[in-house]
Design goal:
- The protein is mainly beta.
- It has one domain: Tachylectin-2, Chain A (5 Propeller), CATH 2.115.10.
- The chain is globular and about 55 Å long.
Amino acid sequence: MVGLEEKLRNRAVNALPRMRGIRSPETREVFERISYVFSHDLKVVNYPRRPCVAFNPGALLMGSELWVFPRLVFDYYGYTSSIGFFKLDVENLLNGKLEKPIETRVVLWPKKLWELKGCEDARPWIEGERLLLLYTGFGFMPGEMPGERGLKLMWVQGLARLDLNFNVLSKGFFKIVDEGKELVARMKDSAFLKVSGNEAVMLCRPSLGGVEVCWCGTADLGELTLHANAMKPVLVHEEWEFKVGWSTNVVKLSSNEYLIGWHGVLAQDYSYKEGLAILSEEGELLAISNYLLSPHGIVEEYGDRPLVIFGNGLIKYRDSLIWVGGVSDYGIGFFKADLEKVLKNLKWIKG
């Protein structure tokens, strides 16, 4: 009998030849560098230590304020991550008038065994008076192999519910279920496409026997489950890449068009390059770009993990698209492009 992980892996492998060939390795830089924020620019007000690095930030636009949720690391020994929060005036940001230091709070930190090594890479979603925070939990799970108390180290897709004062109401991690079977998959790079009560259309990137492609599925936010039968590959790596993933939250363009950032990791040099896609509200791929944002110069190319621009924030503000991204696992970059210009670089697949 085929196990649940193998079943999903086969689905991903079978999608590779069918879904490849829609992109080229071309890079066309369309984003302007606005500003950078580094750990020494932050003043953490509710924790006594200073962060070593701040990177891979989620983002929300709340009126004229840009809410930013960076990943913070306070030591290089355990390298245990937490998620912080700071806010910026978006007009000041666009005009290059950031006031530093920036007051920052730690809002999510490890409290469970499955996240004991870190809370990473937040992607926020506002639902009424609640903040849903998707994040990667890195920690320990029961394992079959001998180890520390029979545990194995792995990452899972976490979800925290917070009120708008950043009090944590609940947290847990997603499992994939199918006809009585249950899989705790190594999963990250998730984003909500649509949320209605406890039902969500969710984009995710499970690691299935070394195969990592972009998926869409339906999630039960009460049970924290993804339904295997509804999961479908949406975007796969091309022959010059060894994996792809979702990079950002979605930005609604119309009633059935949602813009999202994605990344490809190049086999040649392991660099991360970013592109954009348009999805339907069911998660169907409507349009795709080649690479539109990649690391340039020593500030972006050289860090704790070189050659990386990552997510996790994508914001539409007036006629501009703002990418709020991690820079080589040590800093935060703010990148701006004209939305109309960006959309001209996407090739329509359907619609």
